[in-house]
Design brief:
Number of strands: 2
Structural class: mainly alpha
Distance between the termini: 55 Å
Order of helices and strands: HHHHEHHHHEHHH
């Protein structure tokens, strides 16, 4: 029973990280119908930013760990948002009226550029990431089912989900995002600045990815330039599983994928852990292309 609960909590942790990345995928797709394959690299850049800022503060100052974590997280969000917004302006905005395949190729190109930029600027090797999350006194290492980093990841993901739900459903900006998603032309005629809405969407998606990058780096204890690629692909699978363009679907798909990987690795073989995501993707595309929550859209020709 204890082994089952450990796998369950590990699945929740993975699902939480996938959700933070998948939310960015699904928000951008919902607005401009673009699969941003460079989104995983924003997650990776957030982790590297926290590594640099947090490492410098840990070595040169005597600040409390929580304060170091806060500064590193804020820095990661700031830089990731900057990269995400710049990427949208340079690689996607000029192609907004181009065929979808053109924008998709541009996204793949941005992914490769950012990967190699970080590889050349840092290193291709794995780098150790010292945890900035202090151990909570009520959690005993080796005895508690959930550790400190897992608890922080779960709580942080819950807070982000609540924030996004309130933002999209109950604010003017959220209404503008929903209107832009439905009809950009009518949104412009109604006085909505569509360009600003799209930029804001990229900023929010980049921020959630950065949070995920910092949290998973603290949990795993090491990072390299390639971590964003596989995590981004899995988050994309989670978004498709739940229904691309649906925020509740992205969250649901992420937790299903996290649970599948955790229990599959625990009861079948950890060697096939990464393969489970692609098996799920194939099954969804064959039997329910719209996803678990997504709806089929009828386009007039």
């Amino acid at each position: 029973m204890k082994f089952f609960l450990q796998l369950f909590l590990a699945g929740l942790t993975k699902g939480s990280i996938y959700a933070l990345i998948a939310l960015g995928y699904t928000m951008v797709y919902g607005i401009i119908k673009l699969i941003n394959f460079a989104h995983g690299e924003i997650y990776m850049i957030g982790a590297f930013t926290a590594l640099i800022i947090g490492g410098v503060l840990q070595i040169t100052t005597a600040l409390p760990p929580l304060l170091i974590l806060g500064i590193a997280l804020a820095s990661a969000v700031f830089f990731s948002v900057g990269y995400g917004v710049t990427m949208e302006k340079i690689a996607y905005k000029p192609l907004r009226n181009a065929p979808r395949l053109t924008a998709l190729i541009s996204a793949i190109g941005m992914s490769l550029i950012l990967q190699n930029y970080v590889r050349l600027a840092q290193t291709s090797d794995f780098l150790p990431f010292r945890s900035m999350i202090p151990n909570f006194s009520f959690l005993t290492p080796g005895k508690s089912l959930v550790n400190t980093t897992q608890l922080v990841i779960l709580v942080s993901t819950l807070i982000v989900m609540i924030f996004l739900t309130i933002l999209i459903k109950f604010t003017r900006t959220g209404k503008a995002m929903r209107a832009t998603s439905q009809d950009k032309v009518m949104s412009r005629l109604s006085g909505i600045n569509v360009d600003k809405v799209i930029t804001f969407t990229f900023a929010i998606g980049s921020a959630t990815a950065a949070i995920g990058g910092v949290l998973i780096a603290n949990h795993m204890g090491q990072i390299n330039f390639y971590i964003g690629f596989l995590a981004g692909i899995k988050a994309f699978v989670a978004a498709v599983l739940g229904g691309i363009g649906s925020i509740p679907g992205a969250v649901l798909g992420s937790f299903i994928l996290g649970m599948t990987e955790s229990f599959g690795a625990g009861y079948i073989s950890s060697a096939y852990e990464d393969a489970f995501a692609f098996v799920i993707l194939i099954l969804i595309l064959v039997f329910k292309p719209s996803g678990l929550i997504g709806r089929n859209q009828i386009e007039k020709v």
